[in-house]
Amino acid sequence: MNTVIGTILASIWQIALTVFIAVSVSFFALALVPGDPVDIRLGPLAKIPAAQREQIRIELGLNEPLWQQYLTHLKNLLTGNLGYSYNQHLEVSTIIARQAGHTLQLATVALCLAVTLVLLGQALLRYKKPWGQPAGLRDKIFNLVNVILTATPNYWLGFLLLMLFSVWLKWLPSGGVGSWQAIILPAVTLALPVAGVLGQLVNTELNAVENTQFALSSRARGVSRARFAWSHGTLHAVPSVGAVTVNIIGSVLGGAILVETVFARPGLGRVALDAVLARDMPVVLGLVALSALVFAVLSQLLGTLITLTTKRRGH
């Protein structure tokens, strides 16, 4: 019981520390960026008296020393207050809530598609392939495709898919969120590079487990190579895949900034890009805090999953 409580407390501490470091670094980094938030709030052409400008600075808390602004920001975060946008004049939590669904939908579809492609690729690669057969043409093509997908930038891939399926063939819409067809091209754009990374990793793990004593025993019992891969090899690959899952999710969410821009989709990616370009500090810091929290929680959950899977595999 004490061990469980200690593990939970350690996880909470690591999550809190991750969010604290991410928010602190981002706060002081943004403070170094030139530009007056009052000008951002009023617009570049606004001409108002100095007294009114100072009143706005007081309302935004910008008249306080930087360290005091920092402590106020941390205090607000602890109470769930992410602040107000300089540009949109809305609560940051409201802005995030309005756009999070679009990005979550895109990321979920892309990840599911990537996993499906990896499983299909492994099934085709090992279909009717006997034990001990050396790498052949099928393996070389598989590895080449994975390398190409991994090395292809999201924005370039998105542009090619947009030109081919939307502009030339006119099969799919070029953007928006009005129909289920609108998510196909953005999801494929995000999924293909992820499938390339996962495909290489899973294939390496499956090849490694095929050389274990357990694999030799299964082979002696007449178990086919494909059946062994599905029944035991996939479980063996879970820890390695789980170890890079957080990075993959980060890559998907980071790629969403470019993909949502290319395909004119609403979402947190567009919100982040617009906020950075406009130096809308509350929005940027709110997104940083949310991202750090999500990644920290996922890291802890995946760490637990890997531990449980490793123990099960050991038995």
From TrEMBL:
It is found in: Cell membrane. Keywords: Cell membrane, Membrane, Transmembrane, Transmembrane helix, Transport. It comes from the Bacteria. Signal peptide: none annotated. Residues 100-306 form the ABC transmembrane type-1 domain. GO terms for biological process: transmembrane transport. It is a multi-pass membrane protein. Pfam families: BPD_transp_1, BPD_transp_1_N. The chain crosses the membrane at residues 12-33, 104-125, 145-168, 180-202, 237-263, 283-308. Gene3D superfamilies: MetI-like (1.10.3720.10). GO terms for cellular component: plasma membrane. Belongs to the binding-protein-dependent transport system permease family. This is Peptide/nickel transport system permease protein. It comes from Canibacter oris.
